[in-house]
Fold:
Amino acid sequence: MSYTSDQLQVMDAIIKRYPRSRSAIMPLLHYVQSIAGYVTNEGIELIAKLLTLETAEVSAVATFYTQYKRKPVGEYHVGVCTNTLCAVMGGDAIFAALKDHLGVENDGVTADGKVSLEHIECNAACDYAPVVMANWEFYDNQDVSSAKELVDSMRMGSPKPPTRGPNSLVTWKEASAVLAGINDGKANEGLQAGEPTLLGLKLSKEGK
Amino acid sequence: MTKLAPVLSAHWDERDSFTIAAYTRHGGYKASANALAMEPDAVIQLVKDSGLRGRGGAGFPTGMKWGFIPQGDEKDHYLVVNADESEPGTCKDTPLLMANPHVLIEGCIIACHAIRAKHAFIYIRGEVTHVVRRLNQAIEDAYKAGHLGKGIDVVLHVGAGAYICGEETALLDSLEGFRGQPRLRPPFPAIAGLYARPTVVNNVESISSVPAIIANGAEWYQSMGTEKSKGTTLYSLSGHVNNPGQFEAPLGITLREILDLAGGVRTGHKLKFWTPGGSSTPLFTDQHLDVPLDYEGVSAAGSMLGTKALQIFDETTCVVRAVLRWTEFYKHESCGKCTPCREGTWWLVQILRDLENGVGTEADLAKLLDLCDNIMGRSFCALGDGATSPITSSIKYFRDEYIAHLTNGGCPFDPVKSTLFSGANA
Structure:
């Protein structure tokens, strides 16, 4: 796969964000992931060339961080939090049900390429437990049936919108571009905060 | 009764709270304008006088940290904001940045001025796409409005899923483009941090607390909290409670008071154990409901204030299962650099799995404690130390429950009962 001149320009701009070019390695990995859907060997070679590094140095970074995938994931990558609090409150049951419902194991992808499944660690939304993420957008307060409905909606091609996120769920590749620092114009979409976030403030206004 | 005191969260209920328009409507970017007109040392003194302490877990005085940066050294200085919020149970910075990213940017401007830095980096975890959007947009808007780009630049750096990068020196390695692994200290980041230059690393909530301190003064901030723990902070309540959420209160509020506000432990159930500040802080039980949740109070009671992540578990929860899951997390997230942590967490998981499955022996409890002893304090960073906290504290308070797994030949709990949808939907 070759990269277009537009893509190379974006990568050049990413490198220029930093006083030292090597710092650009992580956003560049997010960016090549946004093009192919995962971090390809070509992507690693290109980053090595752009940063004057050995490919082994780039691979060493790419394989350290769990968000960089070395093989294709689904158009919608679903993560179920199974760290202690979410697990206890239903995350384990949700994860087991989704594996069964989708017919995949951890890190598996459905045959239609639509959905991949992963159990994830705490995603900083414990007051919305149990939490499911899709392309790293929040789906708060899930249960087994809502999670099944969510993945079904993905397979039908019309995924339900995140509970705290943009108006519609973007694809895995599109989300990866956002993580590379590319503005997709959706920052103003969605809630500023969910109810749990606002609970203390609301009570304070009631004189508590 | 301690009253809630929303400062950081004061305007989160406004629909457009995350926009620059909303932020300036409430006086945003006036504090940074005022701070830029002050001598940098005066800004540091003001923050010192306020008593603000680090909100990322360690509680180190923020102004003192800034004061460690050498002056007149002609080197580049850097501010690095730790937004890699990943400690299990911790969920304060993420909603803060979702609802009001500009307060962090304004805090960055003030802190950069104080430590004579031209560059700030915000290292945010990669698993929060929408928060990345909000923060990126806010930075763009701050440039357009002229708050950034006139001597101070802010760059958002997005991580890629590694708990260890919340550790400040691993974060710096990651930001330099390496695998995120901790560095041996000294030298501390204040002397040799990012690119071996003097660097301040502060948590999101710490830096976001600064604009209000500049605007209202050190005395105002000092007027809230307890003797050595000043100001307000975000307490994040989660788990088996009727109404989980964020509660911004003066330091020193108790769990009993917060539970009262949250409608109590889930109806029909009672408190069994809880974490005061994330999974790396030793567990508390119902004996600790009245511990003042400030740095000294929690520490005196045998734990740590940490990130004020109050995770509540009721009597349906198996403590061995809970601790095993946290331990699996630490094993997975150990970066592998130091042997005691890398190998130790692996062995902890093996032994805990046996205990949870009822195939261990009572001698395994002693072995667990011995392993913890050999992990604690023996690595470059505190990840391994954190891994021992849930184990040693749970054995201290719930030894009988470990034994019950052995006599029962397995876990005596029904996991369905601890789910929110207990039975109906599982």
